[in-house]
Amino acid sequence: MNGLPAQAWLNTLLVLLQDAQLALLRLWHALGLTGDSHGQPAWPWARRIAGETLLIDLGLARQLAWSLGAVALALLMVFVALAWRRHRGAWLAGAVFALVLAPWPAPSLLLSPAAPTSFHVSPTRFSVNAIARGAEVYTRHCAACHGDDGRGEGPLAAGLSRWPPTLVSPLLARRADGELFWHIVDGMRDARGQTTMPAFGDALGDADTWAVLDYMRRWPQAAAPLPTAVGPRRCHCRIRRCSVERMRPTP
Ligand code: HEC
């Protein structure tokens, strides 16, 4: 890990975590333990691993990588203990030791809130038609609050209990499609349960919601160079469905 450039091991770690979560989701779905949400398998848990935090917090990513290494080592030691009777106690003690010594990251930093659609993949493939359709949807339903240019200064903005965020931001660009989709469909609430962003699930179908996301995705890429922790092209080819994918350059 130390010898490799940060991008290489971090990228490997993120791909591994993303693939592991997707594999778990597929397994749960295949076993009938979770159903569908908006046409794709629903993420059944309230949390997921915060890949977007690991991307900017190398210390946390390193802690997690060492802890996963310790888990692998502990499993290996248990395996040896099962196969080799003579020093079984010592191997098992070694496994426990590895787990105790691992620098476990704090769950509150490592995990972030998830939605049933967190791992959904946009079916539009960022097509010209979807972007054009999204532009219409945006003008009709969203611009009054978020502004024509997405900077959050629409005519209704000042009267809201919470100011709409700018949608032209690399921070938003890093978020997973599926979670933005969920917030548009289901709306958002403040800590007291008051609606801050209205739900559009009834007004827009799934296709229009994905389309408006495609339209919005065009802004950050045009407006600001994206962050640098992981090379965009490197990410794009492997980490699909992950927020990291959003760092790709304009196709
Ligand atoms: C009535 C005003 C209003 C309208 C209309 C509106 N929004 Fe919002 N939107 C908000 C506010 C306020 C927030 C911030 C909510 C919060 O942080 O609790 C927000 C947040 C968001 C976010 C950020 C979500 C996140 O995960 O952080 C997105 C994306 C978004 N809106 C997209 C849309 C789209 C797309 C439409 C049109 C289909 C739309 N909004 C219509 C007020 C509005």
Can you tag this structure with a few keywords?
Cytochrome Bc1 Complex, Chain D, domain 2; 2 domains; 251 residues; elongated; two-stranded antiparallel sheet; two-stranded antiparallel ribbon; 10 helices; 6 strands; mainly alpha; single chain; binds heme C; disordered C terminus; 6% strand
Helicity, as a percent range: 40-55%
Structural class: mainly alpha
- Which sheet architecture does the biggest sheet show? 2 strands, antiparallel
Shape: elongated
Uncertain spans: 224-251
What would you report as the Rg, rounded to the nearest angstrom? 21 Å
Ligands and ions found: heme C
Per DSSP, the total helix count is 10
The averaged pLDDT comes out at 87
Number of strands: 6
The sequence of SSEs as H and E is: HEEEHHHHEHHHEEHH
Proportion of beta-strand residues: 5-15%
What gap, in angstroms, lies between the N and C termini?
Answer: 32 Å
When the domains are counted, the total is: 2
- Strand arrangement in the largest pleated sheet: 1-2
Record the SSE blueprint:
Blueprint: H1 6-30, E1 36-37, E2 40-41, E3 47-49, H2 51-56, H3 58-83, H4 88-101, H5 107-110, E4 111-113, H6 128-146, H7 170-173, H8 177-186, E5 188-189, E6 195-197, H9 206-223, H10 232-238
Antiparallel strand pairs: 1-2, 3-4, 5-6
Question: Your description of this structure?
Answer:
Helix content is 53%, strand content 6%. With 251 residues, it is mainly alpha-helical. It has two domains: 6-113, no CATH class; 128-226, Cytochrome Bc1 Complex, Chain D, domain 2, CATH 1.10.760. The chain has a two-stranded antiparallel ribbon with strand order 1-2. A hairpin with a 2-residue loop joins strand 1 and strand 2 (40-41). Helix 6 packs across helix 9 (206-223) and helix 8 crosses helix 9. The two termini are 32 Å apart. Bound molecules: heme C.
